[in-house]
Design a protein that fits this description.
Length: about 170
């Protein structure tokens, strides 16, 4: 079997919630193709899901060493940094993801989350608003806006943002 097949099956395992099996496949893909930055990126994602943040960061570092222009891997590593309390490193990686994919709602909402964690509410709100410019009905952007308002004690505005998200996406699970 080739590395591509292991990587794709690992991705399928991730979607099925079988993270440990996914990790095995991503690792096999890497053994077969040691310069496969996508397999390292997927491995980082899987380790994040298992809350194995040091392993996630290491896999992300490997991916970035191979290909430094993948916004997704910076986002994966940023989430791991944030989970272990490294807010400055997380912000740097989220910002790099935004630079690489400025029209990504996900990158903007993730960086908004990081700014909110740093209690930089104006910057958090600016990213949430920019995400809404990109997709006015994005549940993630509406929720990001609501969380900033909630953190600021602006509960009526937070409630309005959450209600809009629910109206647009009643089955959304954020």
């Amino acid at each position: 079997k080739d590395a591509f097949s292991y990587n794709e099956r690992g991705f399928a395992y991730m979607n099925l919630g079988e993270t440990k099996l996914a990790i095995q496949d991503f690792q096999q893909a890497i053994r077969l193709e040691p310069d496969d930055s996508i397999a390292f990126n997927n491995l980082s994602w899987a380790w994040n899901r298992l809350a194995e943040y040091d392993k996630s960061i290491e896999a992300a570092n490997q991916s970035i060493a191979i290909t430094a222009d993948n916004a997704t891997v910076y986002g994966n590593r940023a989430q791991a940094w944030l989970a272990i309390g490294e807010k400055d490193k997380a912000l740097s990686d989220f910002t790099r993801a935004v630079e690489l994919e400025p029209k990504s709602v996900l990158n903007r909402t993730d960086r908004s989350w990081c700014y909110r964690e740093r209690e930089e509410y104006d910057l958090a709100l600016a990213d949430a608003e920019e995400a809404l410019k990109l997709d006015p009905k994005s549940p993630a952007a509406l929720i990001a806006r609501g969380k900033v308002f909630k953190a600021q004690g602006k509960y009526a505005l937070a409630k309005a943002a959450y209600e809009t998200a629910l109206q647009n996406h009643p089955n959304h699970n954020d």
